[in-house]
Structure formats: C-alpha cells, structure tokens
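Can't attach files on this board, so I'm pasting raw text. These are the components:
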Amino acid sequence: MPKEDYVPTLFSLFRQYGYDGTTLSKISAATGLGKASLYHHFPGGKEDMVASVLDHSDCWLQANVLHLLAGEGSPQARLQKMCEHIHELYAGGTQPCLTAILAMGTGRDLFHDKVKGLLESWIGAIANVLVESGFDKDLAIKRGQDALISIQGALIVAQNLDNASLFQRTIQQLPQVLLHPEEGSEHKQ
Amino acid sequence: MPKEDYVPTLFSLFRQYGYDGTTLSKISAATGLGKASLYHHFPGGKEDMVASVLDHSDCWLQANVLHLLAGEGSPQARLQKMCEHIHELYAGGTQPCLTAILAMGTGRDLFHDKVKGLLESWIGAIANVLVESGFDKDLAIKRGQDALISIQGALIVAQNLDNASLFQRTIQQLPQVLLHPEEGSEHKQ
DNA sequence: GACATTGTACCAAACGATCGGTTTGCTGCG
DNA sequence: CGCAGCAAACCGATCGTTTGGTACAATGTC
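---
Top answer:
Structure tokens for the assembled complex are below.
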C-alpha cells in the first residue's frame, strides 16, 4: 500500500489528538501497521507524518479554495462554494481544525511557518475576490482576516459548546458578511 | 509557600504547552519544586493541577467579566471594560487561550464540561447586557456567541500570523459591533 | 525455464529516554 | 522530640525510534 493511503487516517488522528496526543501506538492501531512499517513509509517519524498531512492539506487548500476563488462565477457564488467545502472539511463543525491544533504544544515550534503560509494564502485569496468586487485593498485584506477569524473561532466555540449549528450558522452567513457594502466609516465611534 | 502561589505558573505552562505537552519535568523546572513537593500540594497529580488552574480561571471570569457586566455603568462602558480585561488576559493577543488548548488532545475528555460551563456563563453574561440594552433575547444570545467566536478566532489567527494587532483590532471594535442596531433583517438573502 | 538479485511492504522485538506517579530519607524549625 | 516540607532515587509504563528480519513480487542472468 502506498503511503498516501495512510495520510487521511493520519490527518484525522492529528487533528483530533494534536501532535503530542497522537502517539505512535494510536497511529499503529488506527492504520493497522506496525511501528516499524510506519517508519518505512515515513522515515522521519512522527514529524514526517505531520509534514505529509500538511502537504495533503496544502493540496486541499489549493484545489478547494485558491483555485476555486480565482476561477469563474460571481464573487458571491465563489465564496458560497468555498463555504460548502469548508463545511465539508470540518464535518459541519464537529471536527477540529488541524492548523489550529498544530499551533499548540510541541507542534507549534515545528510547523509554525507552514501553518502561517497556509493561512496567509487563504486570506490573500479571499481578499483578491473582494478587491475584484470593488472593495478597497486594505478593507479586503481586513475582511479576509475576519473570515478566518470567524471560521476558526466558530470551530472552537461550536466544539466547546457541543453546538455544531453555531458553526454552520457562521459559515452560511459568511459570504454576505464579506460582501456587504461598507457603511458609514465602518462604525467609526 | 501556599499552593495558590504556583497556580499562575501552572496557568502559563498549560496554556502554552497544552495538557499533553506540559510534563512534570517542565512543571518542576518552572516552579523550582521537586516532584514530591508538587504532589504534596496537588495530591491528584497533573489533573489536579489543571483543575486548580481552571478554578483560578473561574474566579478570574467571575471578577473580570460576570461581576463587571452585571454591575454599573452604561452597557457600552461595561463591554469596553471587559475588553480591556480580555486584552490583558491574553497579553494583547500574544498568549493562547487556556480553554481552547484544553479542548484538544487528552485534556478534552477530562475538562470538557468545565470548559463548556465557563464559556456558557461568559456568553450568558454578554447576552444579559444586550437584553438590558433593548435587544431581543435570541439576538442577544447570538451576538454573545459571536463575541466569543471573534475572541477565540482572533487569538488563533493572530498567533498563527504573528500579528497581535489583528487581535487588538478585533477586541477593540467588539463593543460597537455587539451594540450596533439590527439592520434590515440581519442581511436576509 | 531455473536461479540468483533486487526492491518493496511489512512486522516482532527491543532500544534508551522520558513519562506520570510513588517512596524514602533527610532537613530545618517550633 | 515531632512534623511539615522537600530533594533524590526509584517504579512500571509508555514514549519515539531502531534493528534485524520475513514474505513476496519483479527483474536480470544464464
């Protein structure tokens, strides 16, 4: 079996238990492979496995967000499509975010740069759509950041409250929140 | 030295390294206490230490949010004061959230109920202020949830991007976002 | 076709290190 | 003395990792 076949299993393990919490015993049990076999596919050990998972996530982002947002259709339609993919990725808010969980504990030092890159390209892609829709560039970036704040925050709160609908509500209204016209001077006080 | 004196150190350890990542060796080094001394103060071991930290956080929430929001002053002023305390708690967005980090890995199973309770009372307190300001109760609760989504999300994104000002911006505009009048039917599509 | 060679996938067993947790024995002080 | 408080050694378990090997299909050589 090629190693790619194990990446989805690794993905769900790491995003559930985190870097420190995902032990090789758990991985061995979940994949059905002995520890030595795991080192055959991933010579770099646990760190190598997470790197593979992150590459896999990179591809996912490329296909389901970056390429999509830069493609055809109205901005509204593109953003909505993105939200559908997000909804699927996080299983409707019941599954944690890999990048968020890797930003904590031991994983933080190891994968910070990679995670940062993923996040930045995501924000940039959203901002590009908004610029294309006529928004000022600075405002577009700000709203791109706000989009990821909402996504990440909704995931955390939804899971801590056992309330997935809270996440779904947030995602569903994301496109119109992003595209709503600037009012006054953005609530200047 | 009474055990309370070590709780702040434990707090910063656990919110930095998470439950799995915070080893007794790290705790011993950070507190300057031997393991035996740690078990003298916290007979229940690591789990006992986290419980103490969570109690400490409970008191913090009680004093700096619940009591404050139920107190005197205009809703706007109370919410602003709360945001100042939040800003201080998270060191301007440079420090992670304890409850978020405890919701992952092994800690999730152990402390989920406690964390959920903390979050719920926080949301409830914000909602009460909004109801008092004349908002519909359902909308008030929704905005209370959104407030915590923004806080948690901003923390995650700010740290992954090494951009604390992103957090500060989010917190600073939180009061007026919470209090802004309902427009149309909340962006009905 | 027969046979050695190579490469891939896999694993049991064990490594040293460190884990969370416990016990021992000594110290300083009222 | 009595006892609270703690450093240090120790416990079994588990950590991530490594060694040494088996089974088997593909390839090359005669």
